[in-house]
Amino acid sequence: MTSIIAAFQFLTIFPTLIKRMFTSQEMGRAVGWFPLVGVALGFALFGVNYAARLIFPQTVAAALTLFAWIAFTRFFHLDGFMDTLDGLFGGWTPERRLEIMKDSRMGAFGTIGGILVLLTKYAALSEIHTSSMFSAILLATTLGRWASPLVIYAFPYAREDGLGIEMKRNVTFREIIIATLTAGLTAWFAYGWLGFAFMLGAALIGFLAARYAMRLLPGLTGDIYGTVTTLVEMLTLTAFTAIHPS
Q1: Residues with Cβ < 8 Å from 127, sequence gap 6 or more?
Q2: Is residue 162's pLDDT more than 80?
Q3: What is the dihedral angle through the alpha carbons of 194, 147, 170, 42, rounded to the nearest 10 degrees?
């Protein structure tokens, strides 16, 4: 239970039930439960979207859903995505890129990238057919939090200190099995056999993003983990606009 609570406290605004720092072993085990956090987030966001559509047009409901999406996750993944863009495109050496990514100030690359991601998500939520909204949101939140454990396990970490490296060192194949079982069952529940096609797409997006980052850095960082989640979420929603447009 501690690792599950750690996953929820780490990734969302879930109330702080355990008022202490989690150990590196607990954080490593928590990675296996990231998709479960995505499942809970998906149900919560669909609830927001459904309630909003009872009162407002779909475009307004989409904006309120996106606001809740950001609020429930404390800007966590979006902030990582924006820091990644600033670092990868704003530095000329691996050392300088990592230095920029640690800087809390936001640059042009991150700001523009964050705006484009939010616009894309908003447009997708506005255009997805209401009959497919539940599947789209649930797959996006779950698979986004399944792809990040895959790259955490498969790729080296760029730094020698910090929470990210401690988490990386304590993630085992057991956590990947737990994460994959959770994501697979959810994908089947949400979209049947096609849900597994979305899983393959999410894994591909994650590995391509990680491989690109590895061309510019000696390893991945926590910001890049957030980038993988953000990209998978955005592209999953976008795919639904082609399959089930409004």
Answers
A1: 241, 245, 246
A2: no
A3: -80
| Residues contacting 206, CB < 8 A, separation 6+ | 147, 148, 150, 151, 228, 231, 232
- Specify the pLDDT at position 200: 98
d(CA 171, CA 16) in angstroms, rounded, equals 23
Beta bridge partners of 220: 157
- What integer best gives the mean pLDDT of the chain? 94
> Does the pLDDT of residue 21 top 90, yes or no?
no
User: CB-side exposure of 121: number of CA atoms within 13 Å?
Assistant: 24
Q: Which two tokens stand for residue 107?
A: 């640059």
Please tell me the predicted confidence (pLDDT) of residue 104. Answer: 80
Nearest Cα residue to 158 out of 121, 210, 228, 81: 210
Task: Round the CA-based radius of gyration of the chain to a whole number and report it.
Answer: 17
The alpha helices in the chain, defined as continuous H runs, are 2-11, 24-30, 34-53, 58-72, 76-90, 94-102, 108-127, 133-154, 163-169, 173-191, 193-216, 222-243
Confidence bin at 61 (pLDDT 50/70/90): very high
Cα–Cα distance list, 194 to 51, 141, 199, 226 (Å): 27, 16, 9, 25
211-220 in b/e burial notation, b at 16+ Cβ within 10 A? eebbeebebb
DSSP state string for 18-51: S-SPPPHHHHHHHGGGHHHHHHHHHHHHHHHHHH
Contact 70, 62 (CB under 8 A): no
Residue type, 130: T
